[in-house]
Structures are given as structure tokens and as C-alpha cells.
Amino acid sequence: MAEKKLLKKESLGQLFEKLKSDGRRILAPRKKENQIAFEEVSSPEEIAKEYIQTTTSAKFTVFPPCEELLRYRFEDKEVQIEDRKLDPPPTVIFGLRPCDAAGFSVLDAVFSWDYQDAFFQSRLEKTSVIGMSCNEADEYCFCTSVGGGPGNTKGSDILLTRLGSGDYLAEIITDKGEEIVSLAPDLFGPAPSDQKDEFLAEVPVRFEHKELTTKLGAFFDNDLWVEQSLRCVGCGACAFVCPVCVCFDIQDEADKNGGTRLRCWDSCGFSLFTLHTSGHNPREVQSQRWRQRVMHKFSYLPDRFEIVGCVGCGRCARSCPADMNLVEHLKEIVETK
Amino acid sequence: MDALRKKARELLESGDSEVIIGYGEGSGNRARAIFVQKPEETERLILDDRCEQNLAVYLLKREVKSLGKPAIVARLPVLRTILQLAAENQLSDGDVAVIGISPDGELVDLPDFKAIEEYVDSLPLELSPEEQEQLEKIKNMSIEDRWRFWTDEFSRCLKCYACRASCPFCYCSTCVVERNIPQWIPVAPHGQGNLEWHVVRAMHLAGRCVNCGDCARACPVDIPLNLLTQKLDEEVFSNFGLKAGTTSELNYALSTFKPDDQENFIR
Amino acid sequence: MAEFEPKIIAFVCNWCTYAGADLTGTSRIKYATNVRMIRLPCTGRIDFMLLLKAFAQGADGVIVSGCHPGDCHYTAGNYHARRRWILFRSLLDFVGFDTRRVHFAWVSAAEGAKWAQVVNSVVNEVRELGPFEDYQKLARVGVE
After folding, report:
1. Interface of B with C in 228-267 (CB under 8 A)
2. Domains of chain C as residue ranges with CATH
3. Which residue ranges make up each domain of chain A?
């Protein structure tokens, strides 16, 4: 049972100071023109005031868009490999929404499946999450349809809920959370009597994900995929803003002296994603790629890991240039006879 | 809007068109592209200020082509796109029924490419004052400030290629960035990979871009990509007197020349 | 401390500038040794990306040179190149790239002296500008 405390809003500044003197960098949502994105901050004043969700996710903290895996040099006929020293900076992600926080466990499921991905794990280990419950949601949010909720604690080390007074109810959930509290125990006062639920956003359930998973089991050859994907233009925006998409590409960038091996984000929506060296492409048309996206998130991942590959953050729908809107399509599938 | 729906219905009922590519209600008060195949469904077609997406991008998609003879709701950028695609041999006269839309939202009858050319000729193709202002702002920066501005903007680029996917002129079946023997343009979203991608894309669109603005709208991280193509558009016009999307005959700046083309930087 | 000597890459056409540079040599004209020549059949074949690739590989300056307009061995290659450079140069300038590092010239097979002049002045100009680290650094920007 999570321990409940009160964190006054005036105390945030001091908390940040303590975190910084503990050698941690703090990432929080910052507003830059039309974008709200996670960036390094030094004080709470820099944090975006009102926002429902950031444009891009915080996935880059544990799975960067471009990561060096190793370097190599050619010496005569030998190849000298220099492994990357994995020493990520201790990081606190402040203001992460419960949907995003839950996303870390989906990423973890993939990156520790049959092989412990040291790059991912080393970053995850050094990352602590001070989550922020949602007082407001918009029509794109659907966390409650995928087993989440605006005040869910999964994935957060401390979850803050903003109360009517402007102060925060702080739930200390994990050991990492307790570690943070121990840096500044005076800032965490006795629990308020306020009921958390009163301050949470309303997020109506739009579909039953278990029903969807069952339905998808027999949906592979359905014609609906073609109709649904007509307006999709085949970019990677949805995959790249998604907090749980993990497809990546390995690129070697080298010259005659040596080079570097990079891991970069990739998307199953790209037309050449599944192009084989033989020239055959099993997913030649967009409908097959659209089907793959939905099946992977709502059928294959649940089957294999008992985890839904979607946290309902709604970013894909907000960013899609063609307004694909995932929830609409999912509902359509569930409602199809 | 009623006139549009009536026209669409007529096209479907007469069999002249098998699918109408138009705008419909989307999520969050957006408009989205819809593909109407049944006459009753023409009621879904809408027309207002939200209808900005360049629908012509769907004309070359095999999934849409397989639906049959298309008709398309065409505001000015779409009309120019159709002409430019025709100039590049991607469309023939009569391939698509064009439901022209004037800047005031009225229907315009455009039975063939010649009619579209004449109509486009009658409209102003210059940048709006706001667009001009944005462009001037960059041009007036010092060179260091410009470098800082663009490297800052490109630092957000994730190489999602939404700009490419939403552009009707990026129809290469294998994009230059997908050619990997050698990997000419870096795939990775680092500073160099991003700069080179956007430079290549701008150059490949020089003299072809019709300023629909979809690239900047599609970008999930709000990079003002249309500024790059607008600048090159300006250069193509001031140096060679050519403008994209004004004729269905190929008149591409980079595949033509004049022996007396002027410049002031070659020794 | 060794003074900075710029690395200059020159993309030249085979029929005019390359032959011209050869003449510079046979005429025993001394000129700056900073230049590495890359021979192409015609300036028309020069992809604008080649210039950026040269900078990515460590060049501090680039020279692009070919036949005078009207004299192209392939009739019109240099006319197409000229149009390409007009646009590319304005794009580079627009994104804040220092176009003082990129130089264009028409040097014919008979202009041995001119080639030496072009190289010398480009080397001097680029030496003043210093090493072009900004561009090479870009490949590490954004790499975690």
C-alpha cells in the first residue's frame, strides 16, 4: 500500500534543489512555441503550466532516438571494437502522466524478454519517476480502455495528485520513491484528508481491450483493414511519438578507418520496413502495415507477455497527419460482427 | 457544401467516378480525408476552413488507385499539384475528375487540364503577407543566427518522414534515403542526418513544390519545413521565371537551362 | 604551434578543369598544396550532396570547377550544373551554412595559370575562416 504524504507546492523548488545536489538531472515538460516536450529543467518555474500531454513521449530517456552501441577501428586486418561505457546520468522524470509511467513496463517487457538489453536496463535503473495525475483529459485520451487510469500508480516511484489547494497529494510507491523522500523528508508532510478521486479527470471507457484482443484473434483476413488504412500516408509519426513503440534499426556509419554502430528508431508503418534482401516484401501495402500495428499492440503483445502494447495516451491520434485516430478504428473492430 | 455534395453524387450515380476523394469530419474538430464510393455517403463531404490537407497525395497511392476512377475535391494547392503531377507524367488528362473549389469555397467546373491551367492562371500564386513575413524574418537573420535557428529546429527531427509521406511529390518508390549501397543520406536522426535529409528533400522539390504547407502541418514536432521549399520556390522564380503547378507541360528548372542564365558567384 | 592549413576538396570536370590543372603542373607553376582533386566526367554529374559529403569527411573548403558555358564536352552539362549551383548555394545560405567555404569556377584546359590563381585565393580565404568543425560535429549531435 503506497504511503500517502502532502507536498506543498512551495516545496517543489526545494525538492528540485535537493535532487540536483544529489547529482540527478531533472526532466520535466517545457513549453516551446506549440510544443510541450520533456527537457532538462533546474527549477519548477520552467515547467509548462497547463497541459494535458506532451507532444513526444519520455521514451527517449530509456530508449533514445539515436544511440551509439559501439565503435570500431580497422587496424591492418584486425577490427578493434570499443564497447560503449554504460554510465547514464541519474535522472528524475518529473510530471510524467500515469499512462506514460505504465508504458515503461511495456518497454521493459520487450527489452528483457529473452535478452537483457544493457543499454535500456542501465538507463531504466538510473531513472526515477515523479508522476503527475491527470486533473484533465481530452477526447484523445483513452487510458481507461487499456487498463490504465488518470491516477494510476503503476510505473511511478512517487505519484503526485494536484489538490484544490494547489498542493500535492504524494503517494510514495516504490523504494526509489522512498529514496527521493529521504533526500528531503521535511518537505513531505502528513497526508491530507482530501480524496484523490475528486481531483482526477473523467476518462470514459471506449472499448474493452480484452474483448478487442479476443476479436483480433480471428481478424487477420478481414477486409476492414483496407478500408481503415486508406487515408494513412505511411509515415512514422505514430510510432515515434508513442511511449511504447520499440522497433529499431541498426546503422553502421563508417569510413575507411572505422566507424560507429547506432541504434535508431524505426516504424512498421514505413513501406520498406519488411523488405527482404531477396526483394520480397511481405507487407507491401499499407493495409498490411496498419494491421500489423494494431495486431502487435493488441493481439501479439498480450498473447506473448500478457501486457497491452498501448497505454492510451492518445499521442498517435494527436500527431497523425491523416487523422487516423486509433480509438475509432479499435471500436470499429470490436463492434464488427 | 450542398453544391459539392450534389456534384459528387452526380459523378457517382452517372458512373463517371467510382470514388470521391474529399474531406469529412475528423476527430478533435479536424477535417480528414474520406473516400466516398456510395452516392448516399456524399452527405459526409464537408467544405470549410479546416479542409487544408493536400488530397492529391492519395491520387498516386496504389491502395486508392485500386478503388477505381477518382474524383477529387480540389482547392488551389490541389489544382496546382494535379498540373505538376501531369507535367511529371504521373497523371493523364481525364484520369481524375476535378471538382474545383475557388478561394471563396464555390464550385468551379474544370473539365480538363487546360481549364485548370487557365483557372490557376487567374489566381494569385504569391505567398500571403504572413508567409512572406515569416520568410523575411529568417532571411534577415545573420548567418550564425540562421545556422543556430535551423540546427535547433532540426534537433527535434526524429526522421519520421511525415513530411515526405504527406507530400504528393514524394512519390519515388524507393526514396533517396532508402538507398543503402551506399547509404547516401544517413538514416539516423543526428544533426548531420537531419540536415542532409531536409537539404536533399528541399532540393528534390525545388521548382516542384506548390506551397500546400502539408509538410509543416504533418511534422509532429512542428518544424517549419515549408520555409525551405518556399525559399527555393522564390529562387526558381526570380532566377528562371518558372513556377510549379501552373502548366501540365513539363517546365522543370533543373532539367532545362538558358545559355545566358545569370549568376554572380562563379569565377 | 603548427598553423592551420585548410583541406580543400576540388570537384572538377575531366575535360576542362582537370586538363587545366594538368597544364598548371606541366607549366611548373607553383601553387598551394592543400587541394585534393576529384575528377568527374562533367560538372553536370556533380550531385549537390557530394559537396556536403566532402565537408562531413573533414574538408574545410570545396571548389567546384568545369568548362566555360558553351564549351562543355557534353554540350550542356555545365548549364544544368549552373542552375543546380544557383539553387543549392541559396539553400545553403538560407540554412546558415557559410557559403564562403564553397567556391565555383570555370577553368578551361588552357587556363593553367587561372587554376593556380583560383586554388591560391580559395586556400587563403578558407585559411582565414579557420577549420570547419561545425559541420563534422553535427554527426555527433543527438547521439546518446
Report:
1. 228, 231-232, 235-236, 239-240, 253-259, 261, 263, 265-267
2. 8-140 (3.40.50)
3. 3-335
